[in-house]
């Protein structure tokens, strides 16, 4: 397989604080500042139809047109990699992704990805996002484990993507965070974009994309909290950035201050305590509501028991069930009461 060549174009309004052109473009496109400057230098960015330099500061009344050239094709050779498939029909799959697996090829990860594994197992995959992201409707970070939707047909991909955009796909994550939230229930609404000082991080910035996460504390331990996190939007690193912004980063998250010397039993270096544990989605073709659950993987069970300390849960129980992760939530208004899964 080789990547389908697709260029992207977008138009954005300048921000009102006199920010540099390269920073505006970087934030709007999720590119690094260097990559944004390259787009500007190669004539792919116009301000009111004119070329400008990276340091130009547009006024709030000006419009910025950005063209992102199609990436160079990369051949995708299928690989026989283990996959945990929890659901499959002729239109879609649901994968329980292991921590450590990158979802699709990108610089630094040209092999061993979920896409390589999907191609390697054979069968249909949607081509809506190009061969490098064949079937991929949404992503999980490399070190985040859990449930992920894959589309097998282009029609299913379009409908699932539309459901995501309309916030009609319900995703719950389990997280262990350092310290204690100030309230048992919190909502964080803050724009997220590429950190202008570090392209490998995201940050809260005014020019970023709107992001909202709901947090419920399920257990409070001496050193940290067990949280249920509900995504209303799907920004890169959203849960991790929102928790770090209030001083309670995900345990094990080296990127956002939750790792370093504060190691927890069970977590390998780089693995953060975040797991996509529940997914509810309307089937793109039949319209049937489907609900899926994923128990904590062994390393996160060990980490949770380590953080719990003297407050140990019973042995041989499903820890998410024990702490009420899947309990009915009256604020979950995604489904009408008559169509709710009574066991969810």
Show the helix and strand layout.
Elements lengths: L7 E6 L7 H9 L3 H9 L3 E3 L15 E6 L16 E4 L3 E6 L16 H8 L23 E7 L2 H12 L4 E9 L6 E5 L2 E3 L7 E3 L7 E9 L3 E8 L6 H8 L28 E9 L6 E5 L4 H11 L10 H4 L22
Parallel strand pairs: 6-13
Antiparallel strand pairs: 1-3, 2-3, 4-5, 5-6, 7-12, 7-13, 8-11, 9-10, 11-12, 13-14
Helix pairs in contact: 1-2
Summarize it.
By secondary structure, the chain is α+β, with helices and mostly antiparallel strands.
Describe this structure as you would to a colleague.
There is one protein chain. The chain has 3 domains: 61 residues, RNA-binding S4 domain (Structural Genomics Hypothetical 15.5 Kd Protein In mrcA-pckA Intergenic Region, Chain A, Roll); 81 residues, Pseudouridine synthase, CATH 3.30.2350; 158 residues, Pseudouridine synthase (2-Layer Sandwich). 18% of the residues lie in helices and 24% in strands. The protein contains 7 helices and 14 strands. The strands form 3 sheets. Strands 4, 5, 6, 7, 8, 11, 12, 13 and 14 form a 9-stranded mixed β-sheet that branches. A 3-stranded antiparallel β-sheet has the order 1-3-2. The protein has a two-stranded antiparallel ribbon with strand order 9-10. The protein is globular, with a radius of gyration of 21 Å.
Biggest pleated sheet:
9 strands, mixed
Query: How many structural domains does the protein architecture include?
Result: 3
Q: Total helix count?
A: 7
Q: Could you name the CATH topology of the largest domain? A: Pseudouridine synthase
DSSP strand count: 14
Which range best describes the helical content: under 10%, 10-25%, 25-40%, 40-55%, 55-70% or over 70%? 10-25%
The overall pLDDT average reads: 86
The CATH level-2 architecture of the largest domain is identified as: 2-Layer Sandwich
Name the helix and strand elements from N-terminus to C-terminus, one letter apiece.
EHHEEEEHEHEEEEEEHEEHH
N/C terminus separation: 40 Å
* Outline type: globular
Which spans have pLDDT < 50 for at least 5 consecutive residues? 1-6, 333-344
Strand fraction: 15-25%
Q: Briefly, what CATH class of the largest domain?
A: Alpha Beta
Structural class: alpha+beta
- Fourth-level CATH superfamily of the largest domain: Pseudouridine synthase
Rg to the nearest angstrom? Answer: 21 Å
